[in-house]
């Protein structure tokens, strides 16, 4: 397991000098954040980011994320230009030592939460998804704005995009993903770059927009499109775990065994009976997921890839980017590494349960 930590660059309130103090961290997950989706990433920006990370004795081998332009997802005639840019960005990142790229194929909204500062009983705050808050929004009349949404679009542009995706439907979106993969995976194979597709977050339709990376059946269908080893997943326990129907430990075991997990986001979620959820501390007892079973599944299948603690609560009075404070993610990193070390110790003693 190669423990990583996400950093949003110079504007991130959490500094690299603090991050490097977390024991066991090997690298930083980051990106060139000031370039619009679909454009080329300047070589000098990549080089500068890499140098800044390495100056703190950390590696830069994982990009999160390299966004996919909406014209590619919608299958517009202009998609080929954006795909060419994507191919070149893969080549440029490979030249600078990047080995894995996280990306997603979610329409418009990317990840969606309805509140970023929900107060918990212990006085920490966290990200939540409450359906009743979503239902209060009339997408034809109200201001379209929720956490995680792309703010670069005008309200009219957002409505037109959402209408286009509803007309496209799930099958159309899948066909456009197939076309995209057919063009970028040969380049990824040439550059030995692992492409790690992130699941939908949350894993169900929102406002009638299609979702195609939400469950085992959909993931299997996508992975069957290309057998190249570079075609894989960002295995996000929190995203998949938002739906109680997803058996997250079983999925971890299945895809790790196939060698298709190139990057893992590991976090817990607390599921409500009505389907709502809040993001909890990483500890198994803090949420609805058995984090020990997930880690054991990865360990037993010989997973040695990149991992990062995912979203954390805001604790100890910390302020900053919601979900991406220092303290709770640092606790998560240590918790995950502690479980992994325990598995290693028991393996040496021949005591790991099957």
TrEMBL record:
Cofactor(s) annotated in UniProt: Fe(2+); Mn(2+)
Keywords noted in UniProt: Iron, Lyase, Manganese
Cross-referenced SUPFAM superfamilies: Xylose isomerase-like (SSF51658)
EC number, as in UniProt: 4.2.1.8
GO MF annotation, one: mannonate dehydratase activity
Known catalytic reactions: D-mannonate = 2-dehydro-3-deoxy-D-gluconate + H2O
The protein's annotated pathway: Carbohydrate metabolism; pentose and glucuronate interconversion
Keyword Protein biosynthesis tagged: no
Highest taxon above the source species: Bacteria
Database matches in HAMAP family: UxuA
Protein function: Catalyzes the dehydration of D-mannonate.
Family membership noted in the UniProt record: Belongs to the mannonate dehydratase family.
Identification of the protein by name: Mannonate dehydratase
